[in-house]
Design a protein that fits this description.
Blueprint lengths: L30 E7 L6 E6 L6 E2 L7 E6 L5 E6 L6 E6 L6 E2 L7 E6 L5 E7 L4 E7 L6 E2 L7 E6 L6 E5 L6 E5 L7 E2 L11 E7 L5 E8 L4 E8 L6 E2 L7 E6 L5 E6 L6 E6 L6 E2 L7 E8 L5
Antiparallel strand pairs: 1-2, 1-24, 2-3, 4-5, 5-6, 6-7, 8-9, 9-10, 10-11, 12-13, 13-14, 14-15, 16-17, 17-18, 18-19, 20-21, 21-22, 22-23
């Protein structure tokens, strides 16, 4: 399973180093990045500016806290924690307050993501030999299973219009990108013609904010490389944004679709990077010997 825990081997890639350009966004002081790191010896969730300043620890817990996902209104963070003995989903404020557990699964839960209206949270349940996609209301009510097979269905995201769900699955032997209706029906593979016959895996897919494109990682498990690609929702116009000289993965769009944050080990261990939507202006944001990854965008004031 492609877990969000750094104790597993995340699929990833590396590529071009940053240019001398300085990252500038429309509202620099409001653009934040939430991620998790093992820099204190256990996994904690942090927040920092998109300029890569000193991160603030949001969780401060002896348990492992990971897989952060910021709510659409930027007020809450869904995350995974084993603080009660098994991985489940918790919510906290964007400032790290008011932590509440919203799933109570006896089987490990991972990879939360919000619906565009903030009413639901998609997640993955790991049954060891296979994994399935579930959905729960954001208040913890009505957990519902959406997929059911003997393979690994993972990393679900609602479309911006909330009319379909994007996910990845190895049901054909290699991870590919799939779509389904929001009730779990009409599951179908996204065909990317010139890449589909390759032995590489298509992982970590995520919608463009306008729903027209998908960003994902093309992972070569044999050579332990991965590159970030963008492709139209119909599978055409696939473009590589990074090269294959290392492992680059888990990309996420900014809300305006102009920037992509991702994790990369191009400099020896996984760090958070940022690039322009066309792959230019690639810059490293974290500097730490521990694992930094699973970035998520947020817009909050400077008192965070």
């Amino acid at each position: 399973m492609i877990s969000c825990s750094s104790t597993s081997e995340p699929t990833s890639f590396t590529t071009i180093h940053s240019s001398d350009s300085t990252i500038e966004t429309e509202d620099e002081e409001l653009n934040k990045i939430v991620f998790y790191s093992g820099r204190l010896g256990n996994n904690e969730i942090y927040i920092m500016s998109a300029e890569g300043d000193t991160p603030s620890n949001l969780t401060n817990n002896v348990a492992d806290d990971f897989c952060p996902a910021v709510s659409p209104d930027d007020t809450q963070v869904a995350f995974v924690s084993n603080r009660n003995g098994i991985d489940n989903i918790f919510l906290m404020s964007i400032y790290g307050e008011y932590t509440t557990q919203i799933t109570d699964s006896i089987t490990p839960v991972t990879q939360p993501s919000w619906s565009p209206d903030g009413s639901k949270i998609l997640y993955t349940v790991d049954y060891t030999e296979y994994s399935e996609i579930w959905v729960v209301n954001s208040d913890g009510s009505n957990p519902t299973r959406l997929t059911s097979n003997d393979f690994r269905d993972e990393r679900p995201f609602y479309s911006p219009a909330m009319d379909s769900i994007l996910f990845m699955s190895n049901r054909e032997g290699k991870y590919r990108i799939y779509l389904m209706d929001i009730d779990g029906t009409n599951q179908r593979k996204l065909l990317i013609p010139f890449l589909d016959e390759s032995n590489n895996h298509f992982v970590f897919p995520q919608w463009h904010p306008d729903g027209s494109k998908i960003v994902y990682s093309l992972n070569d498990l044999v050579n332990r490389t991965a590159s970030i690609h963008v492709v139209d929702i119909d599978g055409t116009n696939d473009v590589a944004l990074t090269d294959e000289s290392g492992r680059n993965e888990d990309p996420a769009w900014s809300s305006d679709g102009q920037w992509i944050i991702f994790q990369s080990e191009r400099d020896g261990n996984f760090e958070i990077y940022m690039m322009y939507h066309d792959g230019s202006i690639q810059q490293r944001l974290t500097q730490n010997s521990a694992w930094d990854g699973w970035p998520s965008w947020a817009s909050v004031g400077d008192d965070s």
